[in-house]
Design goal:
Blueprint: H1 2-25, H2 38-60, H3 64-70, H4 73-98, H5 102-122, H6 130-150, H7 155-174, H8 178-202, H9 213-220, H10 222-237, H11 242-248, H12 251-263, H13 270-311, H14 318-330, H15 332-348, H16 356-363
Length: 381
C-alpha cells in the first residue's frame, strides 16, 4: 500500500508539473498562429475547445449535468458570466503575447493571489491575518512602482489578474466539475465565435483556409492546448495535496517571465525589476503564512481524522478495503476529471472556508492560466 501511495504521489506530481509546465510555456505557441489576429485565434480556441471537451464527455458518458444546469437559471446565468469573463481573459492574454508583452502578462498571474485576497475582503467581507495584510500592502506598492516602470498602469496584468479572480469566484458559485464547466462555457461562446469566423471568412479575413493545412491544424489544436493541461491538472489534484499544487502554481508565471526576458528579449529596466521583486516578496509572505496555517490546522485535526478512520467501516475489514479499492478502480476513468472540482478552489484562488480566499490564493494558483491558471486551470493561458 505504501508503494502504491508513493507511485500515485509521483504520478500526481508529474501531472502537476506537466499542467503548469504547459501553461508556462504556452507563450511559445500563440506566435505560431500568426498571421491570424488575436480575435481570430480566440474564436478558434472557443470553437475547438468545445469540440475537444464534447468528445471527452462522450467517452466518459457524463451528460446528466446538462439537464440539471438548464433547469437552474441562476447557475446558468453564472456560467454565462464566467464565459464572458474568461473570454476577456483569454483574449487579452493572446493579444499580449503576440504583441510583445509576455512579461507584463506573467505579472498578471503573479499578482492574481493578491487580487483574490482583496476581493475576499471587499466582496466576501473576510478578515485577514497580519501577514496577509502585509502582502496586500506590498502588492499595492508594487503596482505603483510598476506604473512608474511601464510609464502607465500595468493594465494588461491588472486585467488578467482581476478577470481570472472574478472567473474563479463565479465558478466557485456554479460548482461544476472542470470539464463540465469548460463545456458549458465554450457552448455559450460557440455561436458568437463561429459567427465571427463566418463573418471574417465572408470579408476575406479568415486565415484558417488561406494559409495552408499546417496553419489550419495549428488553429484547430487550440482546443487541445486549452484542455490537455486541464486533464493533467485534474490527475494531479486527486493525487497530491493542495499545498503542493499551490507551490507548483508559481511555475507557470515563472516560465512565462523567463520566456519574456530571455527568449523574447523584452526590456526589464530597474523600475520593473523593483516592482517584480516587491510582488515576489508579497508572494513569499503569503505562501509562508498559508503553509504555517495549514500545518497548524493539520496538527489540530490530525487526532480527529485518525479516530474517524479507525471508526470507519472497512478501515480494518479486508472485505471493506477490497470494496473500496474496487470503487476506486471503477472511478479511474473519470478520476482526473473529478479531481478538477476539488482543486478548482486552488486554481481560482477561491475557497469556501472562513478566511479561505486568502488561504487558497496563497497556497493555490494564481489561477494562472489559468491563463488567461490560471487556471482554472481551466482559464490558464
Amino acid at each position: 500500500m505504501a508503494g502504491t501511495s508513493k507511485s500515485e504521489g509521483r504520478t500526481g506530481l508529474l501531472n502537476g508539473l506537466a499542467a503548469y509546465g504547459m501553461w508556462g510555456l504556452v507563450p511559445l505557441f500563440w506566435p505560431l498562429l500568426k498571421p491570424a489576429g488575436a480575435t481570430e485565434i480566440l474564436a478558434h480556441r472557443m470553437v475547438w475547445s468545445l469540440a475537444f471537451v464534447a468528445v471527452a464527455l462522450l467517452v466518459v458518458r457524463r451528460w446528466a449535468w446538462v439537464g440539471e444546469l438548464l433547469r437552474q437559471p441562476r447557475r446558468l446565468g453564472l456560467v454565462v458570466i464566467a464565459a464572458a469573463v474568461i473570454t476577456v481573459n483569454w483574449g487579452v492574454y493572446i493579444w499580449a503575447v503576440n504583441s510583445g508583452h509576455v512579461v507584463e502578462a506573467s505579472l498578471g498571474y503573479f499578482i492574481n493571489p493578491l487580487v483574490t485576497i482583496a476581493m475576499g475582503v471587499l466582496i466576501l467581507k473576510e478578515r485577514l491575518r497580519p501577514a496577509q495584510w502585509a502582502a496586500v500592502g506590498i502588492g499595492f506598492t508594487a503596482v505603483l512602482v510598476l506604473t512608474i516602470g511601464f510609464g502607465r498602469p500595468p493594465w494588461i496584468s491588472l486585467t488578467l489578474a482581476f478577470s481570472f479572480a472574478i472567473y474563479g469566484l463565479v465558478k466557485k458559485k456554479v460548482n461544476l466539475g472542470g470539464v463540465e464547466s469548460l463545456a458549458a462555457e465554450t457552448a455559450i461562446q460557440f455561436l458568437p465565435a463561429l459567427g465571427y469566423l463566418l463573418w471574417l471568412s465572408a470579408h476575406g479575413g479568415l486565415t484558417f483556409a488561406t494559409e495552408g493545412v499546417g496553419h489550419a491544424a495549428l488553429l484547430a489544436s487550440t482546443g487541445l492546448v486549452t484542455a490537455l493541461p486541464l486533464v493533467c491538472f485534474g490527475a494531479a489534484a486527486i493525487r497530491v495535496p493542495l499545498s503542493t499544487l499551490g507551490l507548483l502554481q508559481y511555475l507557470a508565471p515563472v516560465f512565462q517571465f523567463l520566456l519574456g526576458v530571455l527568449y523574447f528579449g523584452e526590456a526589464m529596466p530597474p523600475e520593473r525589476w523593483a516592482g517584480f521583486a516587491l510582488v515576489w516578496l508579497a508572494l513569499v509572505l503569503l505562501t509562508g503564512d498559508a503553509l504555517r496555517t495549514s500545518r497548524r490546522a493539520a496538527r489540530t485535526l490530525g487526532p480527529a481524522i485518525t479516530e474517524g478512520r479507525a471508526a470507519a467501516p472497512g478501515a480494518t475489514d479486508p472485505a471493506g478495503a477490497a470494496g473500496a479499492a474496487g470503487a476506486i478502480g471503477a472511478a479511474g476513468a473519470t478520476g482526473a476529471i473529478d479531481g478538477v472540482r476539488e482543486a478548482e478552489s486552488v486554481a481560482s484562488g477561491v475557497s469556501g472556508t472562513p478566511g479561505g480566499t486568502a488561504v487558497a490564493a496563497a497556497s493555490g494558483v494564481p489561477g494562472a492560466p489559468a491563463p488567461e491558471a490560471a487556471v482554472s486551470p481551466l482559464a490558464k493561458p
